[in-house]
Amino acid sequence: MAKNADATHVLERFTPATRAWFEGAFAAPTPAQIGAWDAISTQRHALVVAPTGSGKTLSAFLWALDSFARTATDIMDSALPGLQEPLPAASKTTGSGGTRVLYISPLKALGVDVERNLRAPLVGIKATAAHLGLAVPQVSVGVRSGDTPANERRKLVTHPPDILITTPESLYLMLTSKARESLTQVHTVILDEVHAVAGTKRGAHLALSLERLDDLLATPAQRIGLSATVEPREEVARFLGGTAPVSIVAPPITKTWDLSVRVPVEDMTDLPAAAAAHDLGPGSGLAPQASIWPHVEEQIVDLIEANRSTIVFANSRRLAERLTGRLNEIHETRVAAASTEPVLGPNDIDSMGAEPSAGTPVARVQPGTGMPAAMMAQAGMSATSLPADQPGAVIPLARAHHGSVSKETRATIEDDLKTGVLRAVVATSSLELGIDMGLVDLVIQVESPPSVASGLQRVGRAGHQVGETSTGTFFPKHRADLLATALTVSRMREGKIEKLHIPANPLDVLAQQTLAACALEDLGVEAWFETVRRSAPYASLPRAAFTATLEMLAGKYPSDEFAQLRPRIVWDRDTGVLTGRPGAQRLAVISGGTIPDRGLFGVYLIGSEESSGAKGGRRVGELDEEMVYESRVGDVFALGATSWKIEDITHDRVLVSPAFGQPGKLPFWKGDSQGRPVELGAALGAFTASLVQSGQSAARKELASIGLDDFAAGNLLNYLSAQAEATSVVPSDKTLVVERFVDELGDWRVILHSPFGLPVHAPWALAVGARLHERYGLDGSSMAADDGIVLRVPAMDDEPPGAELFAFEPEEIEDLITAQVGNSALFAARFRECAARALLLPRTSPGKRTPLWQQRQRSAQLLDVARKYPDFPIILETVRECLNDVYDLPSLKSLLGQVASRGIAVREVQTRLPSPFAQSLLFGYVAQFLYEGDSPLAERRAAALSLDPALLNELLGRTELRELLDAGVIARTQDELQRVAENRKLTGLEGTADLLRLLGPLEQHEVAARLNPEADSPTDLLTAAGTYLEALVRSNRALAVRLGGRHVYAAIEDAPRLRDGLGVPLPHGVPLAFIEPVADPVGDLVSRYARTHGPFTAHDVAVALGLGVAVTTSVLERLVADTRVMVGAFRPAEMLDQAPALGISATEYCDAAVLRMIRSRSLAALRAEVEPVDQDTFARFLPSWQGIGAGLRGLDGVMAVVEQLAGVPVPGSALESHILPARVRDYQPWMLDELMSAGEVLISGAGALAGNDGWVALHTFENAPLSLPLPDTSTFSALASKLLGVLGSSGAYFVPQLAQLSARLPDPDGSPGGHDTAEPSSALVLEALWELFWASAASPDTLGPLRQLLSGGKNAHRAPAQAPRARTARLGRMAMLRAGRQDSGVELSGRRPAPESASGRWAALPAPLADPTIRAHAAAEFLLERYGVITRGSVAAESVPGGFGQLYRVLGRLEEAGHTRRGYFVERLGAAQFSTSATIDRLRSLVRQDDGGHLPMALGLAATDPANPYGAALSWPEAAGGHRPGRKAGALVVLVDGALALYVERGGKTVLGFNSLSASTDVESAPADPALLDAIATELVAVLRRGSIGKLGIEKINGQPIIDSPLGSALRHAGFYSTPSGLRFRA
């Protein structure tokens, strides 16, 4: 009953006509409609999430339609108006002067579908209104998309419809033209299928268009988002509303699904040779020509013929075309077999779904094509239709529907399916979204759907009505696909869809929208920045990135090198105004949008220009450019179930004629695959493991419950069993398998089996390829797929690489992939698309294709220019897109971390033949590299990028490693590199040859020093070295030359380097092969010197090679520029003291790899030197480090405390009662007031507590932007928002002033303010100010207001009592005048006294810096200053954004720069601790020897005091009985020599004793030390008095009565007194 009452209540909000129509047309509203109307009717943004067929579209539209009924004025007499005349067109307006409802659809076909479905409610409401004698709304509807003719678009501008149905791209075009004037009356925006755009750059583009639209309106439009599949809902709601709140309507509607997975054969590995095999992939058996496709096709035809209406979904356009041809062929064969007479269809419609024109033969499908089906299919061809006069022609069973079929044909196919003319449609994602295809009985999915969400959308096309069951049948193509299909169907039943991620700050889209926004009118920079930041994708846009994008558009980069870099806007930096240059609007309109231009060729029917009336003739589809390049005039291809013959190929189109009955080759289109999301991959791994671990019967039962038939279940279980037999372990989410085997060419194939998906595997494969090249000099071909990584490693004598190739440290993987991605084809392709979006590769004219090869060429030219400027926004955006949108680096790092911690096991296995899992992967490997040599040159040779160093490096300053690197480590490393270390020496003749090759020219004694003696050689090493060297010279493997007056030996390969680089004359007889010049002889010699030495100077290498210092310096600078050599200060002071003083340059160099080795070894040596201290020592250290007991005094002492505690939240009631007095010996409240009023110290709130208390934080003014949190302004009340606007625009104000100013401002909802508006009371203003204060948005200029607030309520700690303020009595005539009681009759509005808690002025707090890198670095510095030693617990206690993982990277870089040290400093806190050398020395100085000769030292603190390590860096110890302690406001702790001794809960009553104090509550334990008890009791009383705690009662300790305990006696001695219930303290 409650549900019906809700429905009735909601329906009562509609006008009578709308309500009557709805109640007559429907039994009751659905839960989704009830929730949607409840939210929409209150003018809130709303996201409606409900299954397909739950009435979402009507829920969004009906309230908007009702708004027209509410404003209608015309009364019609017609009984059924609207039935005698057509639906109002766009030219018939209501006089509103503009569009009021905007419907945005991601698909043009969906928009047309919605326009058609609007007819029923529009006509119905009109008829009902007329019947009731009410005003009849006259509502016009218009559609604008890329398919709308120009004359219709002009009509939409001159006579705007009330409801406009459009696409994101068309909305952008309208906003960038005069058509935007027609949108100024919009009050509702409906965004359908919001999930289709939210996670893409198209969505970011639309989000900015919506914000631009809001800027046109007097009041922002209400936004309504619709989606059937979306997760997480909060993220999509954020996309929908931007900074505005959004109501999420997601009622628990149960959708009924009938899902099944079918496999038509008993054993998918034992397939008979079959004709018409469509796929030679891993689904095929081992027998030639064996395929599962004929069996699948026969069953699909059976299902289609058994139902009235069916949609078959395929994952590619090529498969859709191929499958369509095969289904029609099977169907016509069956029809021909059933009847010898021709069977003609009832309608004269051709195969493309269009009525035939005069003189054009009508296409019919027929059986006799002259070619066996097997031959056509194996050759990639399709059998298609014949003319109608051919005997035996039949109506096609199915037609193909995808994006490359013309829009006219698609519309005809859709209508034919709805009307029953067509039994089936074979579609791609073109029919996936919410298009109403009528009463579809069945959906068939061939192959596993791309995602769970996609599967739900596709199967949802069947049973597309409220309460109906959606029936779907899945046909996997091979066993690996069967496993993925089973999981997908399982998760579809559970509704577990993949999470959506909104792209963060795409700069290419920002550049395009910026140019469009200022193309028609001047644009304020600050206003535009605010507009951009309102949208969800740009909510965290850094100002630096915004500025860089403007600078690019303003012509910062040289246009003489690339013309399209010329200025597009004028940026007046004095006025902060952007102005579009001439041509800006044309550029933005012609080249706008985010969908990449693939350079597709349009396909047109030759000779149809006149008959069709269309410009250029009748369009029948489009083809991929590379497919066209491989085609010739006269070729026949299939498109849309019809064969077409190529008559001509021009520069931008293919002209064709019908080729009925001729077999045509299937076209191909290249598309990007996003891959399996990591969460779905983890689920697949867990699903696999579950099946493997279950018994056969249990597994079959589980698979049957999912929907697998017997054959499917049997094949899947056999597949897993075969894999287990081949590799002994099946890959899962907890176990990865590295498989090796030798292929047919004798090379090694190394395969990583992993379920985690392509976004994780693709960057991993990139890193593995780089490692393979680095370690072995091999360019191993690597391929990543959803199920793993495949490597081909050439045959080698040594053990082939295995699992070690895939092991990376999580910290290094991001930098490695960032360095590698710039050289990938992915980067070049994405750079081209990003540059096109940023309007740097514009189209020359609308509607004219730009060849793909030309786009690639221009993109390569732009990249050559852009790579010189590391801060070029589009390079940065391309890197961001590759790393964040294409790759899933965070998941990869997490995965590698789990591998390193053994949370995920890696198993290695060597097999004789590829395992079943490997067979599936190998097919994809072959397919990827089949045409790799034909890939575009520009994308294969993407130049290495010199990316701008991270902002963190700038903050850290120049790298000075002199204090970090260990002299002993440098010396040891140098010995190893020079082969003089005992474990690095070589042996014999070959060892001598290796020495010359590795180290360069050496003297005989230098060679001897690097050789090990041979076991049977009696000669000394010097003689042996001479023998070896002479033997090498005689065999032309070495040279004997003079270098710098020394007689040396060199490897023969160095001959051209010595000759051309050093001018060394070569002896006679050097083979010609070894005297060919090399490209960079001096560079090679200097680079080798760097690789074989530790840190050195230019003078060192000059002496070694006999060159001038200027020459070596020049070469070294070149190597530095290539990042092969690093420059800095590396050698410690003691090594410099040992070096000669003369000729030593201050600048040192070191090979990059050598420096990494020395640095890592030095850090390891530093960590090994530090022995960890116990936790009690750290607990003694932390209060000392924070100045407790240090004797700080006066204002300087307070300032020192503020600097150390900047930004850390503490209870406001504890600030002046515990925190500051514990540190500043003579603290008085005026000290903090003086610092605050002088502007040196600020205070902010961090959330309210019970009573009037709350968390507060102090900040120094200079560091406040770094220590202040980012406030959340979205939840402020109207008055608080107005006050924040007043405070943010000017200085500080008293409360009465704010009351007056706020009354003059308009409300956030648009309500006007002014002089006549009543002022809010001081109490209301003060309440709003405290709201701003607790949100860290505003603060008073002294602590007075906070003290007054705390003194007036119940707080965690008692605030010091404030004396009441006395003021002189105001008597006499002026008092009466102020009261308005004099005879004049004039009532004066004098100053109203404000509450005492309103004393002082209030101001807005400085805006916090939003850059996450700067904030993370600042957080690390604050924590080091506050705690001395940073641990995971201390970071968690302060709730640092991003947590310890975010901070770890910054701290690691600080360590690399020598500013911090990482180590195991405190026991049992993990190895990831950071500190400085001086701090560690101080920490270790507090270590005490256990001699028992010192008196116990007690320290009392507030539990929330940052100096209390327990509950933060240290965990709370166990206590006997009672409750668990916590860092709670109002609680107190007493530490004795660092150990926690006593915990006093807020208000006392019960306390917890620890260690010996805990044992003392046990009567059988030895009594505690009386000195210890006295120290604890004395300190507790001191803390109570210092904190102005008037009274405290304690009843129990660890659950036992306090009065009889040893501690009770000590407390009575210290100042407590006994009561019947326990002990009480009173100040």
From TrEMBL:
Source superkingdom: Bacteria
Annotated ranges, domain Helicase ATP-binding: 37-248
Keywords: ATP-binding, DNA damage, DNA repair, DNA-binding, Helicase, Hydrolase, Isomerase, Nucleotide-binding
One Pfam family cited in the UniProt record for this chain: WHD_Lhr
Broadest EC class assigned to this enzyme: hydrolase
Annotated InterPro entries: ATP-dep_Helicase, DEAD/DEAH_box_helicase_dom, Helicase_ATP-bd, Helicase_C-like, Lhr-like_DEAD/DEAH_assoc, Lhr_WH_dom, P-loop_NTPase, WH2_Lhr
Molecular functions (GO terms): helicase activity; hydrolase activity
PROSITE patterns for this protein: HELICASE_ATP_BIND_1, HELICASE_CTER
Boundaries of every Helicase C-terminal domain copy: 299-508
Enzyme Commission number(s) of this protein: 3.6.4.-
PANTHER family xref list: ATP-DEPENDENT HELICASE LHR-RELATED, ATP-DEPENDENT HELICASE LHR-RELATED-RELATED
Official protein name in the record: ATP-dependent helicase
Species of the source: Paeniglutamicibacter terrestris
